[in-house]
Design goal:
Largest sheet: 12 strands, mixed
Order of helices and strands: HHEHEHEEHEEHEEEEHEHEEHHEHHHHH
Strand content: 5-15%
Number of domains: 2
Number of helices: 15
Helix content: 40-55%
Shape: elongated
Length: about 450
Amino acid sequence: MNIFTLSWKNIVAKPLNSAMSVLLFALSVGLITFLTLLNHQLKKGLDNNLAGIDLVLGAKGSPLQLILNSMYHIDAPTGNISLQEASPFLNPKHPLISHAVPLSLGDSYGAFRIVGAPQSILSLYGATQVEGAMYREDFETVVGAAVAKRLHLHIGDSFFSTHGLEDDPDLAHDHGAPFQITGILSPTGTVLDQLILCTPQTVWKVHEHEETDADHEGDHEGHDHEGHDHSDHAHVHTKLPVTDIDSSEVQLLSAAIMDSLRSQPEKEITSVLMKFRNRTNFQALNLLRNINMNTGLMAASPALEINRLYAMMGSGTDALRYVAILIAIVAAISIFISLYTSLKERKYEMALMRVSGAGPGVLFRMILGEGMWITLIGLALGILAGHVGMHLAGSILERGYKYQFTGILWVDAEWLIVIGSLIVGFLAALIPAFQGAKVDLHKTLAEG
């Protein structure tokens, strides 16, 4: 009989002890795998959305909140800023700033944020293809791939926005013109997949109409809100060809919007995403401090704030990782105790094997094989549990972080989990294997 087959039979002979060791090992491996997948995908999403942005300009408040709100769209705005204050940074001839993308935020649809921005935001995040057409007029929208998939949206659909990021019908702006979908972006792997884009003027008009309706509330008491179907997709959907985004068209449309913004200094926006002409320029490096000290605005550095976020998140994930490592140590001790106890109970059996011609090396490999069987089964179940857990938690995490999380991927760091698990299992079985190989043949047979 093959030595590993014999090891397997010895494991099966005591299912409860083996199962406990396997479950402990699988729990530790599963937790470490889950954390590895979470950290990898979250860091990848955060890094992808840096988009080369050097500064974010907004209202005074928390710099981290400004970054999370304006770049990752997972927090509330710090407030609004006037275009009069922001206009110097929107100047295309600014000596330090090469790109400035103003954002108007505040509304959403289906818990996906509506962003009023010039079309240059597409270039900023590297969007290259769109089904349908670019948004050109007010209330025309281009939606991200994840938005279209989750909400089952198509070209030509219309909807009304909701105040804030909650999907609450009571907060819907269901008066005036609805938003019309003119295009659907191809997946970009960035936050654009989770956004609904329109002109900044659209966001203003929605809220201006809301204020007008509030002033004439008595005139609308008998208005039938049921006449608005916010998800009216009854018309026939035709899939339009996916075309490359014309960079010259984006530039022209963006320039027109920027000219319009500069001509209305009394209006407000939420923030401005900015890229430097030269990151090594001394004046550019001091721009953040100069803005924060000498203006009523606040500038925040994405790189600094995201590193701060990593540090805050790292303490929590490190604590969980230490718990997983502790469980792995307990699992290793469990494997050791299981094999050592089994060894003491099977000494006579091993002495008979020695008499039958089995050498010390055979006994060593047999006991080591038992430990490795437990390790391999626990490792396989743990990795499977980690991936399944991430896949099941993906939708919950996606709602919170606005990124797609999946368990159907393998990251390089998981090879370290495999190697580390095998080493732990090997070490746990090593001492019992040595003890089994050195069994005192004559004494054991005499006692037997």
